[in-house]
Amino acid sequence: MIFVALGDTEAIGANCYFVKLDGTGLVLDVGVDPNEEGPESLPRFELIHRNPDWYIDHAIVTHAHHDHIGALPVLLREFPHVLVHMTRVTRQLADLLLPASARLQRRRLQEGRSSYGPLFDEKQLEGYSYLYLTHEPGQDFSVTGLRGRSPVRARFYHAGHVLGSAGVLLTHEEDGRRQRVFYTSDTNLRPQAIIPGGDYPEEPVDVLILESTAGADPEAERTTRRLEEERFGEAVRRVLDRGGSVLVPAFALGRAQEVLAVIDRLKREKVLPADVPVYTAGTMRAIADLYDRTRFVTPRLDPSFEVFRVEQRRLPRRLEAVRQALAEPAIYVLSSGMMFERSLSNRMAQLLVEDERHAIFLVGFAREDSPAGRLLAAAEAGAEEIVLDEQRGPQSLRCEVARFRFSGHSHRRDLLRLVERLQPRHVILVHGDEDAREWMADNIQFFYPEVNVWMPRSGEPLEL
């Protein structure tokens, strides 16, 4: 087996891993780096082109977050013979999110916010869609390459991360011995508000490709989802009672729908006023509709729950109308979760940050160099100013800022339990910054010394 990370391995972005199994070439996920633009945001496909012994027969996409699927059209343009495998719901999300990405890239260029042309357009996406093959979790499917010396079978497992997300088990024979490789992708062992915890292979695996997002977050393992939801409800109520509004920056896929489910429960339990307005906008509303339409055919804690059952108002488009909405206490659930510049959450944050009545509550992972990460660090340090948008410059930091752990990722102790459960001979650590991967590596080696742990650098082949 040959493993090569084609994206950045020292941060979270452009998740894309080349795996060669006995003559079959695969890529696991095909993401873009959300902090980069244009070609700089892409995986290093040139590594495949340069090596005559490397080639891609199949791509397996585990879920529809852009850091896992955003470069798929570019992959298909450069390797037009590749077949793409994903769950049926991820296919539906791709048909929604990739055209939206193309439109956003075009608009950024037209508005002068980017110097790069779009990586793909909507017409190209229509031409690629016939290459998408869908499979349900628990269903075996072939990913054997044309030059594969033995059959390679794949099977999806519900990952517990977002709608349609999956880990994937790859099974093949090499030197007369069956080999099992499991890629967790983004995974969550525990239930969220809508989606239950993940499923995993029952038998041991030989190689575990393990995410490590929360490896450097000791606080995540010290709390529970229920306690965080209660703390969130109390904090939101406190802001509303003083006449303020709450901004909840959230990823359009997954976190936004989970937050709305939490708000629904808190309203029903009378923690929050039943009539407090909840504003949403953009793509997350279309995604919520897909959550509702698939609630009886995808894993759910309560299939009867509908996201749109939570009464929502559309965020006004005009700035003056938004200012008028802020005259009364409300909750704003807006993307992006990391508050990237020019996003709806970033623009709303600029309106709230200088007013001590208001609050910005972060509910998911935020890179340290993102506006959300900088805001949290500034608040914790007691800073008086924050830069949310470079063009606007510094603003006074007077609003309340807090973080609540509603993550769709397993905390690090649960990831260690997954290692114990799957009993791999090798663990390859991915999807985490350097500190997170180092903590995971140190603790796997301490508790399971028989396991070989690898932290490959981007572009460096690892042969097992």
Automatic annotation (TrEMBL):
It holds the Pfam family Lactamase_B. InterPro entries: Beta_Casp, MBL, Metallo-B-lactamas, RibonucZ/Hydroxyglut_hydro, RMMBL. Gene3D superfamilies: 3.40.50.10890, Ribonuclease Z/Hydroxyacylglutathione hydrolase-like. Residues 256-375 form the Beta-Casp domain. Residues 13-251 form the Metallo-beta-lactamase domain. GO terms for molecular function: hydrolase activity; RNA endonuclease activity. The keyword Acetylation does not apply. Keywords: Hydrolase. This is Beta-lactamase domain protein. It comes from Rhodothermus marinus (strain ATCC 43812 / DSM 4252 / R-10) (Rhodothermus obamensis).
